[in-house]
């Protein structure tokens, strides 16, 4: 009999199950029209996820909750009158509330999907509110697209986005303006099937969330633009100082200023790199979600893609341009600093060569003086040695009367001089070999 293979006999990777669960997490929620969806997003720090989760769980203290999803970074609960999904992301956390509506039920402008939740609970949410949006999901049988189009006023000062999504299976209406603090979307379900309504709603509130998160880089880009204009002017002025620099002191002063600008540029790059990179990533997500909607243009109205191209993309291009200008300025400062350092190094090398030439001349002069001193030394040695010979020969004239002290002294002088010269040369040779030998 064949023994069936059992995975329990194999040691699994500790992250295997967690990674697979993350792959299936945050799936679109099956929705049926009519439905009101209220979505909130709070920008937070990295340490608030535990507080947020505890705050979400506190909802179950006032009502009976059933957990549909439950993990450290996201959960979904069913409280009976509404459903709520909480998700913790890198920079923000989102709270999405789903409340079914009755067919034909009119909605007051202030109605939300979380009307039954006390305001104290929202006040305890860590972070700062960055996104608040309502999405009203209706069927075309409950609310016809023609009636909505007829109620749009071109003189109201708002440009309404209207398009058909999912290859014409639904309609979407919005103007991206705030009403009572919320942006609003209307989705009319014509022939959506399966999880399509849930995917459409999820893509809409993700577009709104990613759009606002991406725009966080725009004020920083405006600030950086003003600073870059000043820094580029200072750099151009310093380049003029380099051309007019006449002394090493001037060049060193310009190099110090360049180093200061370089440090300021690197500080600005370090401060804004994450924000600009995040804006680029969110921008790509916005465009991806819009493409997934598969829009069809409604004559006379802009689509979501067209609206983003005119209103949103310029801000993202500004962020990308400021990031590129910072990198370009950093490279220019580095190149100019290197050129100036090369110029200073060449000047220092020239000064060193002059110093070495002066030292060489001094060495030659010292050699001449040494040779002169050596000649004088030979004369002095010969003089004093001959005097010793003279005094010695005077004492010996009584033993050898024939020998005159003067004659002996005269004969000894060339001999003493020769020996002194030979001795000094030998000593110089020994010192030279000792100096030029291995250390």
What's the overall average pLDDT, rounded? 84
- Largest sheet: spatial strand order: 2-3-4-5-1-6-9-8-7-10
How much helix, percentage-wise, in residues? 55-70%
Tell me the structural class: alpha+beta
What is the molecular shape?
A: elongated
How is the main sheet built? 10 strands, mixed
Work out the count of structural domains.
3
Please tell me how large the radius of gyration is: 46 Å
Number of DSSP helical runs: 9
The helix/strand series, from N terminus to C terminus, equals HEHEEEEHEHEEEHHHEHH
User: N-to-C terminal Cα separation, in Å?
Assistant: 85 Å
Unreliable residue runs: none
Instruction: Please indicate the percent range of residues in DSSP E strands (runs of 2 or more).
Output: 15-25%
Total strands = 10
Task: Describe what you observe in this structure.
With 439 residues, the chain is α+β, with helices and mostly antiparallel strands. It has three domains: 29-203, no CATH class; 217-353; 366-432, no CATH class. It has helices at 16-24, 49-57, 119-123, 145-151, 196-215, 217-244, 248-293, 304-395, 405-436, and strands at residues 35-43, 66-70, 74-78, 83-88, 92-100, 128-139, 161-165, 170-179, 182-189, 296-297.
């Amino acid at each position: 009999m064949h023994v069936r293979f059992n995975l329990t006999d194999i040691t699994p990777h500790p992250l295997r199950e967690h990674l697979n669960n993350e792959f299936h997490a945050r799936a679109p929620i099956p929705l049926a029209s009519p439905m009101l969806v209220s979505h909130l997003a709070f920008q937070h720090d990295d340490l608030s996820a535990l507080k947020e989760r505890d705050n979400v769980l506190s909802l179950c203290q006032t009502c009976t909750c059933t957990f549909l999803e439950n993990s450290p970074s996201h959960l979904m609960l069913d409280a009976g009158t509404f459903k709520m999904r909480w998700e913790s992301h890198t920079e923000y956390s989102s709270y999405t509330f789903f409340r079914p509506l009755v067919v034909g039920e009119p909605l007051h402008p202030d109605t939300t999907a979380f009307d039954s939740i006390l305001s104290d609970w929202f006040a305890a949410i860590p972070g700062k509110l960055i996104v608040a949006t309502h999405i009203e999901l209706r069927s075309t049988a409950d609310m016809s697209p023609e009636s909505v189009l007829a109620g749009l006023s071109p003189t109201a000062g708002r440009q309404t986005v209207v398009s058909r999504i999912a290859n014409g299976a639904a309609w979407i209406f919005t103007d991206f303006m705030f009403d009572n603090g919320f942006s609003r979307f209307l989705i009319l379900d014509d022939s959506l099937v399966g999880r399509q309504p849930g995917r459409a709603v999820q893509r809409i509130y993700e577009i709104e969330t990613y759009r606002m998160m991406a725009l966080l880089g725009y004020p920083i880009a405006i600030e950086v633009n003003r600073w870059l204009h000043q820094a580029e002017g200072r750099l151009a002025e310093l380049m003029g100082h380099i051309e007019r620099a006449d002394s090493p002191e001037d060049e060193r002063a310009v190099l110090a200023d360049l180093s200061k600008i370089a440090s300021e540029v690197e500080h600005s790059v370090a401060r804004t790199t994450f924000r600009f990179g995040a804006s680029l990533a969110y921008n790509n997500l916005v465009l991806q979600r819009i493409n997934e909607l598969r829009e069809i243009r409604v004559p006379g109205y802009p689509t979501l893609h067209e609206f983003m191209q005119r209103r949103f993309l310029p801000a993202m291009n500004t962020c990308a341009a400021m990031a590129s200008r910072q990198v370009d300025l950093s490279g220019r400062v580095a190149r100019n600093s290197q050129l100036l350092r090369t110029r200073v190094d060449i000047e220092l090398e020239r000064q060193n060569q002059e110093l070495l030439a002066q030292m060489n001349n001094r060495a030659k002069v010292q050699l001449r003086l040494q040779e002169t001193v050596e000649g004088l030394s030979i004369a002095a040695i010969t003089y004093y040695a001959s005097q010793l010979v003279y005094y010695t020969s005077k004492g010996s004239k009584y033993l050898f009367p024939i020998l005159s002290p003067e004659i002996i002294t005269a004969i000894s002088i060339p001999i003493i001089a020769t020996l002194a010269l030979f001795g000094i040369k030998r000593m110089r040779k020994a010192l030279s070999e000792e100096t030029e030998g291995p250390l």
